[in-house]
């Protein structure tokens, strides 16, 4: 049975050929007009990147390698032997260097967990196989191999980093050892102190899968790809992803949702009427703030990642009061956002639901939530970094314009 690396080595030559043929056939074709508004408007909808692991449809949501979330739920895991050998490989690579432990142990508990996470991941570049191979003059054709090793190390070490941050910041005792006979989600849950709760472990399996990838243009994915394009190693590249994920319009939204819900409860009480909730939502908008967990730059329907978590909650915690509040909000917020008339998508995204599930099982420290998002996002970013190096993706360098230049270009047109 082939290892993951051997399988990749089999697939790469055909994919190089596939890209070559695609470029030969379509390379000179136009991909639609670029509007000046797209330059000012955060490049929304601008075709600009290749990303193979997943594709996001505005109506349908994410597909991972062509499969929807429900299809993945049906199909995974289909290869128990491969899963076991991969779990063992990650367990064998899981230890983090002493100096990275020291860095984390010296962080003040007031430093946000995402900043600590980013520091630790960046520091892993100390042992990067890619950086070392590059210094030794490795050929371009071989780039993907040390990148693969770094990506596997990165993924493998994240549970120890996340667990250490959680226990340091929240005083939750000593970190246990990784169990080489258990899967990644179980080990992550155990390092956080929740391994005994089988439902939480199951939640981690769902959580790690649905947060892993959301095509290439979102801030964390794009930041990783961009930095990787300078041949910065996967630790430096993924550090950039984490810094982007830590923003409130992106991954930090899951923390913001919980803070917003708690504030709402303290303001209008536990079992508030629909009217009172609606008023609170309006007050948020009138205060010039966003409703966290709602809206999306690409999606125009309810995020299937939200629906998958809602299904989990309906099965395992239908009576949880906070889950009921999330359900109540789901009925109210889209109407308010539509009436307010600004948001292009009034429906909930992944972050509207995740915190409630974690809270239910006792992981109540909301500042930590985005760290879990980051652990999962490593899978998508790392996979693309390997493919980018295998396919020889070039340095990213789009053209920027000044407003004066735009005015000049269109002066007489
Ligand atoms: N609440 C209030 N206003 C919102 C809104 C929301 N949830 N969603 C969008 N809007 C506003 C925008 O702020 C923007 O206002 P201005 O014109 O004053 O700048 C206007 O509606 C148009 O925005 P849009 O085109 O619909 O949305 P964008 O593509 O610009 O932004 C996103 C997308 C996600 C940043 C935005 O919907 C938002 O801020 N949502 C709340 C934060 C959130 O949940 N982020 C997590 C997204 C998922 C993830 O990455 O993890």
Which band does the percent of strand residues land in?
A: under 5%
Order of helices and strands: HHEEHHHHHHHHHHHHHHHHH
Whole-angstrom Rg: 22 Å
**What name does CATH use for the topology of the largest domain?**
Citrate Synthase, domain 1
User: Which term fits the overall shape?
Assistant: globular
> What is the CA–CA distance across the termini?
63 Å
* Spans where pLDDT lies below 50 across 5 or more residues: none
The name of the CATH architecture of the largest domain is Orthogonal Bundle
Bound ligands, named by name, code or SMILES: carboxymethyldethia coenzyme *A
Count structural domains.
2
Helicity level:
55-70%
How are the elements arranged and paired?
Blueprint: H1 4-26, H2 36-40, E1 54-57, E2 61-64, H3 69-75, H4 80-92, H5 98-106, H6 113-123, H7 129-135, H8 144-170, H9 184-192, H10 198-210, H11 219-229, H12 234-245, H13 253-268, H14 274-286, H15 304-316, H16 321-340, H17 351-360, H18 369-390, H19 403-409
Antiparallel strand pairs: 1-2
Bound molecules: carboxymethyldethia coenzyme *A.
GO molecular function: acyltransferase activity, acyl groups converted into alkyl on transfer
Protein name: Citrate synthase
Pfam family, one: Citrate_synt
């Amino acid at each position: 049975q082939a290892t993951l690396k051997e399988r990749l080595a089999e697939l790469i030559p055909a994919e190089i050929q596939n890209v070559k043929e695609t470029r030969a056939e379509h390379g000179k074709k136009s991909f639609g007009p670029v509007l000046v508004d797209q330059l000012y408007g955060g490049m929304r909808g601008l075709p600009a990147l290749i990303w193979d692991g997943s594709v996001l449809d505005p109506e349908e949501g994410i597909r991972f390698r062509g499969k929807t979330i429900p299809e993945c739920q049906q199909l995974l895991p289909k290869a128990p032997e491969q899963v076991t050998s991969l779990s063992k490989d990650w367990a064998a690579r899981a230890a983090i260097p002493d100096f990275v432990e020291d860095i984390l142990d010296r962080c003040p508990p007031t430093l946000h967990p995402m900043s600590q996470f980013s520091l630790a991941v960046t520091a892993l570049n100390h042992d990067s196989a890619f950086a070392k191979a590059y210094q030794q003059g490795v050929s371009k054709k071989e780039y993907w191999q040390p990148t693969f090793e770094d990506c596997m190390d990165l993924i493998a070490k994240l549970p120890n980093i996340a667990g250490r941050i959680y226990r340091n910041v929240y005083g939750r005792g000593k970190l246990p050892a990784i169990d080489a006979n258990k899967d990644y989600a179980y080990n992550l849950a155990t390092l956080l102190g929740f391994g005994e709760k089988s439902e939480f472990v199951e939640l981690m399996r769902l959580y790690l899968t649905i947060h892993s990838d959301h095509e290439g243009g979102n801030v964390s994915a794009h930041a990783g790809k961009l930095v990787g394009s300078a041949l910065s190693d996967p630790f430096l590249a993924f550090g950039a992803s984490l810094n982007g994920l830590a923003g409130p319009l992106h991954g930090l939204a899951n923390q913001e949702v919980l803070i917003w819900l708690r504030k709402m409860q303290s303001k209008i009480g536990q079992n508030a009427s629909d009217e009172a909730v609606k008023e609170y939502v309006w007050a948020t908008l009138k205060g010039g703030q966003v409703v966290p967990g709602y809206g999306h730059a690409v999606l125009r329907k309810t995020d299937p990642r939200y629906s998958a978590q809602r299904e989990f909650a309906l099965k395992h915690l239908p009576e949880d009061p906070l889950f009921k509040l999330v359900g109540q909000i789901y009925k109210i917020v889209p109407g308010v956002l539509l009436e307010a008339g600004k948001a292009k998508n009034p429906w909930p995204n992944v972050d509207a639901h995740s915190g409630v599930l974690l809270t239910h099982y006792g992981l109540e420290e909301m500042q930590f939530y985005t760290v879990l998002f980051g652990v999962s996002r490593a899978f998508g970013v790392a996979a693309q970094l390997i493919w980018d190096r295998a396919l020889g993706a070039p340095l990213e360098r789009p053209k920027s314009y000044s407003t004066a230049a735009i005015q000049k270009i269109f002066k007489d047109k």
